[in-house]
Amino acid sequence: MSPPPPNEDDVISQHDSSSIPQNRPISTIVIIIAMQTEALPLVDSFQLTEDLNSLFPIGTPWVRYHGTYKGLNINIIWPGKDAVLGVDSVGTVSASLVTYAAIQALKPDLIINAGTAGGFKAKGACIGDVYVASEVAFHDRRIPIPVFDLYGVGLRRGCSTPNLVKELEFKVGKLSTGDSLDMTPHDEASILANDAVVKDMEGAAVGYVTDLLKVPAIFVKAVTDIVDGDKPTSEEFLNNLSAVTLALGKAVTQVVDYISGKSISEL
Ligand code: SAH
Fold it and tell me: Is the shortest distance between the CB of 236 and ligand 1 below 6 Å?
């Protein structure tokens, strides 16, 4: 007989057991962003400079922009361009690697994963909406064997931020992550099972690493395309990318302004 499946509270990791003190002011923030277009408005807004002596292994395309803003040590980490193809290194593999490397090198008090996402209009998402993810999970790691199925879904909770989302009036919803921009019927069924409002290609991978290393993480996702609408995703994504990245930049700046001077337990 196989053992009974674990119940939800046993399988969802929370960041409350963080090794980082919850009550001292946040000082170092790492912002993980997959695309340069998404990163640049924030590099501008925080007046960051690109690190010329990389903290990361030689040969990696990973880029750090850093500086001080409102008393916070801010680092934006962008996985850079693929060395052969020259496009942004989007997706879960790069996202988890840079998250791991950035935590090792910078020991941040908080990770923010900021980016664009597809949204489901059936769940109330509109183009330009900014969501803070309550939970992140994968939709393309199907392992139909008891317990491995839950491992594949990889559900993690984001850092609890009731005051922040209320004050800044962000929408809150679940985020589902997979390595494809499009959505197969299999993916769609898993996303529905994950009860997600937004869909991206990095969040749950960042969540896996921040949970492993016990660093609180906030996921801020701005909707570039409606997944259950009638427009092709890639076309809609590219049409809305520059306008929505400005909205994302504004939202992340508000989040950082709010964080300044506060501890994790005050968020
Ligand atoms: N053709 C694009 C490729 C970007 S991939 C380009 O011009 O480079 C899409 C990126 O935006 C990923 O980082 C992903 O996290 C996010 N994203 C936006 N809409 C998405 C959707 N509908 N599904 C999955 N990821 C999406």
Answer: no
